[in-house]
């Protein structure tokens, strides 16, 4: 049966960073709903234009749009063995939809690592985040700086600060997380799949802890 791992946690806690490391180690696909939306926005698709209205305000994109986008991504061949889901689900409705979709693909959510850190830590991480224009590679001005300021080490494209990483929008995103995503923590805790991890540590330590809980 395919293995699906859902990474849960507040915006900026390091889900994308950890998802990439784990996906590499486990040879599983990495599905980031935020990256998929940003790709649609870059390509100016109808879905992207619609999603941008919500993303720019720091709100969640409506469930039906988000679920449809993930359904399509899950149907790709690279998800056959499973995937690391980063940023999806974010509401109980999305979690129920995910279970139904995975049942169709003969899979299930195996484990839900819940990465936590104090609000001051996540705000510091978001405010220093720089993202590469071409492929979404992520840097941090202090904790993971690029070799050359403003330039991606991997593909030499420009680094930019996401509009929704500006301080006004971050406050809204954290409120939205508390109101709409925290109920998922209880949902997965009840299912026995939730494992809490301390995200307020160096990247390498969080990834060691994450590998350990996934192995167990
Ligand atoms: P999320 O996907 O949860 O929004 P990211 O993985 O994009 O978070 O990380 C947010 C920012 O924090 C990025 O700039 C990243 O380089 C940095 N970062 C991630 N994990 C850590 C960590 N453990 N310590 C310090 N900085 C980190
Ligand atoms: P992220 O890259 O995970 O920080 O997501 C950036 C933005 O994309 C969020 O603030 C939301 O507006 C939107 N988004 C990402 N994932 C979802 C989701 N599962 N449900 C609704 N909106 C989402």
Detailed description of the structure:
- There is one protein chain.
- This protein is an alpha/beta fold.
- It has a domain at 2-117 and 181-211: P-loop containing nucleotide triphosphate hydrolases (Rossmann fold).
- The chain is 48% helix and 18% strand.
- The protein has helices at residues 15-26, 33-42, 46-55, 63-74, 92-104, 119-127, 167-190, 203-215, and strands at residues 2-7, 29-32, 82-86, 107-116, 129-132, 138-140, 159-160, 194-198.
- The chain has a five-stranded parallel β-sheet, sandwiched between helices.
- A hairpin with a 5-residue loop joins strand 5 (129-132) and strand 6.
- Helix 4 (63-74) runs parallel beside helix 5 (92-104).
- The chain is globular and about 45 Å long.
Topology diagram in text:
Layout: E1 2-7, H1 15-26, E2 29-32, H2 33-42, H3 46-55, H4 63-74, E3 82-86, H5 92-104, E4 107-116, H6 119-127, E5 129-132, E6 138-140, E7 159-160, H7 167-190, E8 194-198, H8 203-215
Parallel strand pairs: 1-3, 1-4, 2-3, 4-8
Antiparallel strand pairs: 5-6, 5-7
Helix pairs in contact: 1-8, 2-3, 4-5
The structure holds adenosine-5'-diphosphate and adenosine monophosphate.
Keywords for this structure?
single chain, 216 residues, alpha/beta, Rossmann fold, 3-stranded antiparallel sheet, 48% helix, globular, binds adenosine-5'-diphosphate
């Amino acid at each position: 049966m395919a293995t699906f791992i859902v990474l849960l946690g507040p915006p900026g806690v390091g889900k994308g960073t950890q998802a990439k490391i784990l996906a590499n180690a486990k040879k599983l696909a990495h599905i980031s709903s935020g990256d998929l939306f940003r790709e649609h926005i870059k390509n100016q698709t109808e879905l992207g234009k619609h999603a941008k209205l919500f993303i720019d305000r720091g709100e969640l994109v409506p469930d039906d749009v988000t679920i449809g986008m993930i359904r399509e991504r899950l149907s790709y061949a690279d998800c056959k063995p499973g995937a690391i889901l980063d940023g999806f689900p974010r509401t109980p409705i999305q979690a129920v939809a995910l279970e139904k979709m995975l049942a169709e693909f003969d899979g299930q959510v195996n484990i839900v690592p819940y990465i936590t850190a104090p609000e001051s830590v996540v705000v510091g991480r978001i405010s220093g985040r720089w993202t590469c224009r071409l492929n979404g590679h992520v840097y941090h001005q202090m904790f993971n700086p690029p070799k050359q300021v403003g330039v991606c080490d991997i593909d030499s494209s420009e680094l930019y600060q996401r509009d929704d990483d500006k301080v006004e929008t971050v406050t809204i995103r954290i409120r939205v997380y508390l109101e709409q995503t925290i109920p998922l923590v209880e949902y997965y805790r009840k299912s026995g799949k939730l494992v809490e991890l301390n995200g307020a540590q160096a990247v390498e330590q969080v990834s060691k802890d994450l590998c350990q809980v996934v192995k167990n």
